[in-house]
Automatic annotation (TrEMBL):
Keywords: Carbohydrate metabolism, Cellulose degradation, Glycosidase, Hydrolase, Polysaccharide degradation. It comes from the Bacteria. GO terms for biological process: cellulose catabolic process. NCBIfam families: BGL. The active site is at E169 (proton donor), E366 (nucleophile). InterPro entries: GH (IPR017853), GH_1_N_CS (IPR033132), Glyco_hydro_1 (IPR001360), Glyco_hydro_1_beta-glucosidase (IPR017736). It catalyses: Hydrolysis of terminal, non-reducing beta-D-glucosyl residues with release of beta-D-glucose. The keyword Hydrolase applies. The keyword Hydrolase applies. Pfam families: Glyco_hydro_1. This is Beta-glucosidase. Belongs to the glycosyl hydrolase 1 family.
Amino acid sequence: MISPPFPDLPAGFRFGAATAAYQIEGAHDEGGRGPSIWDTFSHTPGRTLGGATGDTACDHYHRYREDVALLRELGVDSYRFSISWSRLLPQGTGPVNPEGLAFYDRLVDELLAAGISPAVTLYHWDLPQTLEDGGGWRVRSTAEAFAEYAALAAERYGDRVERWITLNEPYCSAFVGHAEGRHAPGTREGRGALAAAHHLLVAHGLAVRELRAAGAREIGITLNLDQLDAASRLPEDLAALRRAEVLHNEIWTEPLFAGRYPALERETWSGQADGPWRLPGDLQLIGAPLDFLGVNFYRPITIAAAPHREPDPELRTAVDIGVAELDPYGSRHTTMGWPVVPAAFSQLLRGLDFRYPNLPPIWITENGTAEPDVLTPDGAVHDADRIDYLADHLAAVAVAVAAGVDVRGYYVWSLLDNFEWARGYEQRFGLVHVDYDTLTRTPKDSYRWYRGLITAHHARTEEPAR
Ligand code: GBH
């Protein structure tokens, strides 16, 4: 099924698949789990497509053995999943839930028994509701609660987990959640979103400290850095591009990898980012050395200057920075409406490497595509477009690696079709099809293709056993 040429990736390059707790687990009110902001948000009318919730999702909480068997058959080296914070600590802090701890023990042990290395994301957007009620990411105490949670997880699972990701895509937590308002908690704020961005970074720094103290093996963070292009060489479009680079990328990469806040904050947010939530010592905390950077990539964006929607800077949300997002790529689009531009992936990786020479090694922690994925009557899904997408994006990674970028591995998003946040269940990102009536799993053609690719890679690059 796999057709050469294979992406020319080095020996030791690792392959995996990724998921996130709220998108697959279900069992939202079982096993002592407390509610998170995504339970509240998805249960609020009008917030998700068709009122979809993660109440049942893929029922992974009950079917994890079947899902680990699918991973084993797929032949992945590693599985990236997230822990539901409110399963371990129902109120975010304080009393621990032993049933929650036991669930991830079973999952981790099942993975190890299948020869799969666990990679844990501590925060994939599901803040315990109790912490939101106390101010959420707008307040510093939430970052301190996150450190307590990280210490608990590291102490319990650290002997068996190879890779720890503190946060998944803090851009989404801060700005999609508190400025675009399309993710939980679903507000449209200026300063609140910028405070959230800072407290997420502080939470990351505090968690790194706890993970190190507990002897965790590899520690990193996952960012959805955007490959941004300017619509033209006109000065106003280039200035808009710079503001977008601050909003999407530099607010994270500058404190993490350069020990400073972004230079163009004033131009971007009229000084609002520089709020009272920044304390002396924060940059040092945030900039603690990491073992890897996780990068999620889906598509590029072209930026043009646009008038602010809200002229009064005091009333603007944090994403109203006078830019328009364009899509001039003329490519195929996925069902998410995203352009398919693999070359942008190489560009992103090379740009990052050029800009931050001391960057830790990179892991691609998500890449994948949503496609129509029709289940045929004989139980197959012929997802040729997904195979093309994955092949072309892996080739783009190989181009970056050949140019000297240190990329160590790649996780497909996603193992399973799952709850695609505000877009509900209509977007199918899985290598495995899920029937949401019966919860039956059906491997797609791309699943067999990926298995072939992993087998071929290992056969080609590894020394035969003596
Ligand atoms: C990643 O986000 C996430 O880490 C993962 O959980 C997700 O399933 C995957 O990508 C695929 O989307 O819902 O219309 O308001 C990628 C960045 C930012 C893309 C928020 C969707 C919301 C659009 N995401 N965006 S909408």
